[in-house]
Design a protein that fits this description.
It is built from five helices and eight strands. By secondary structure, the protein is an alpha/beta fold. The strands form two sheets. Strands 4-1-5-7-8 form a five-stranded mixed sheet. A three-stranded mixed sheet has the order 3-2-6, covered by helices on one side. A hairpin with a 2-residue loop joins strand 7 and strand 8.
């Protein structure tokens, strides 16, 4: 008997089956591409192979792609995309709206070609910081102390499906904040009773 294999739907469609509104984010694979992208019928396989051999998974501090249903995040300030803080604002906004933030890093291989930052005007500190980053921070309402990243995701998309983000890395990020909030809530509760 022939075994029938049905292709999996795209990751965002898999999430949309369970959640009407969400934000899908993920890490990228950095790769130094000196040659042209592979061409031909198996270009995707050749690229995956190149990424496996030469790529580096970027840290969870840098999210590189975002997917959300139209209208679910609200109006986005006029950020300079590709500069700091616009990505952390998106994750913050989704969490603020109580939307599931889904880390799809396990099922999406996002390839990012390594490049320099010589195009950033008036660079300082980190090479991608400058007036555009300053303006982005201003537009966030100065969320400097509330920067959200991939590890603040509430869910993960895996080959098994959509699951709560109870992975070690996610919990490690969230528990210290939860403990601090708990210590703040207890005294406030006592004060309210007085």
């Amino acid at each position: 008997l022939k075994r029938l294999v049905t292709p999996r739907p795209p990751p965002a469609s898999r999430i949309a089956r369970r959640q009407a509104a969400f934000l899908m984010v993920g890490q990228r694979w950095g790769v130094d591409m000196q040659d042209s992208l592979p061409a031909g019928p198996d270009w995707e396989g050749a690229l995956r192979s190149h990424v496996t051999r030469h790529g580096r998974l970027h840290s969870p501090c840098g999210s590189d792609y975002f997917v959300w249903p139209r209208g679910s995040i609200g109006a986005m300030p006029p950020f300079a995309v590709g500069r700091p803080f616009w990505d952390t604002w998106l994750i913050y906004q989704a969490r603020h709206l109580n939307l599931p933030v889904v880390d799809a890093s396990r099922v999406v291989t996002a390839v990012h070609q390594d490049h320099g930052y010589g195009h950033v005007p008036d660079q300082r500190g980190e090479t991608w910081h400058g007036p555009e980053a300053d303006r982005n921070l201003e537009l966030t309402g100065d969320l400097r102390n509330h920067l959200y990243r991939i590890l603040d995701a509430t869910h993960m998309l895996t080959s098994w499906g959509l699951m709560p983000a109870w992975g070690y890395r996610h919990l490690q990020t969230r528990f210290p904040a939860l403990l601090v909030l708990d210590y703040v809530r207890r005294p406030l509760g006592v004060l309210r009773r007085l």
